[in-house]
Amino acid sequence: MKKEKSSYKNEQKLTDKGTENRKISIVKEYALLTLGSLLIALEVHLFEIPNGFTIGGVSGLGIALGKTINFNPSTFIVILNVFLLLLGFIFLGKSCGIRTIYCSLAYSGFVKLFDIIMPIKEPLTNEPLLELVCVIIITAMGSALIFHYEATSGGTDIIAMILKKFTPLDVGIALLCVDFLIAVSAFFVFGVQTGIISVVGVFIRGVLIDAVIENFNSHKYFTIITTKPDEIRKFILDDLSRGATVVNAEGAYTGEKKTVLYTVCRRFEAVKLRKFVRSVDPDAFVVITTSSEIIGSGFRHIQ
Predict the structure, then answer these.
(1) 169, 89 contact by CB (below 8 A)
(2) pTM beyond cutoff 0.85
C-alpha cells in the first residue's frame, strides 16, 4: 500500500513538472512570436512605407494600393490579413491558425501603434540600398522567429505556408513565388528604381529567411566511442539534461571492448560536451555532425 502511494506521488510530481515545463514553453513561444511580429512591424514602418518598397507580403500590397488611391496602407493590411487568416484556418489547421491570428493581430497592432507614436513620411536616409539591407535583415529575423513555431505573421506568409505543406517547396522559395508578383507592382506605382530594388529585395530575403531558419534549428549530433562511458553518460544526463543512447561495441582492428554513446544537443552545449569528453578520455573517438532539424523530446514536436 505504501509503495502504491509512493508511486502515485512520484507520478504526480512528474505530471506537475511536465505541466510546469509546458507552461514555460508556451510563455517562451509567445514571447518570441511577439518579438518576431514587432521586428516585422518596425521595419515596415521605418523603411518599407517611407521608401515605397513592395517586397512582397500584405505590407507590400498595402503600400502599392495605398499609393494608388492615396489611402493609409494599414487599412489594406488589416482587410487582407483577415481574409488570408480564414484560408490559414482552412488549410493549416487550428493550432497554426491560433498562433497566426496572434501574430497577425500583433503585427497589425504594432504597425498602427508606430504610425501613431512616431509618424514617418520620408525615408530616414538618402540611401535606398542601405535601407533595403535593413529591411531584409530585420524581416528575415522576425519571419524566421515566427516560422520556427509553425506560425505566420498573416498575409501572404499564409500562402507560403500552405505551399510548403502541400508541395516540396521550402518556405523561402514559396515566399519568393508569392511575393515576386507583388514586388513587380512597384514598377507601375513607384517607378523603375523602386521596382528594381523591390524585386532584388524579394530574392535576397527569401534566401536569407531559409538560412536563418536553418540556423535556428541547427543542433550537434555526437557519436562518442569511449572506454569510459559512465562519466560521459553522467555528464550528459546531469549537467546537460540531455538523453543518450548507449551501445556496446568492439573495435574491428584491436578487438577491444568499447561503448558508443549517441546524443544530440544545442551548439553551446556541444562545446561543453566536447571539452568534457577530452578531459576524461583523451583517446575517445568523437564524431560531431550538424543537423538542421531534430524532432523529439527536448527539441521540436510534430504539430
Answers:
(1) no
(2) no
Q: Are 96 and 160 in contact (CB under 8 A)?
A: no
Cell of 138: 530585420
Q: Which CATH class is domain 219-291?
A: alpha beta
**In degrees to the nearest 10, what's the CA dihedral of 138, 167, 90, 29?**
-40
CA distances from 206 to 97, 160, 161, 255, 297 (A): 23, 11, 13, 52, 30
- CA distance between the termini of the chain: 40
Helix ranges (H only) for the chain are 2-43, 49-51, 57-69, 73-117, 128-148, 156-166, 171-189, 192-216, 229-234, 267-280
Query: Using CA atoms, how far apart are residues 222 and 278, in angstroms rounded to an integer?
Result: 13
Q: What are the structural domain ranges in the chain?
A: 2-216, 219-291
Q: Specify the DSSP class assigned to residue 300.
A: B
Segment among 76-80, 197-201, 225-229, 265-269 with least mean pLDDT: 76-80
Phi-psi region of 155 (alpha: psi -120 to 50; beta: other; left: phi over 0): left
Beta bridge partners of 245: 262
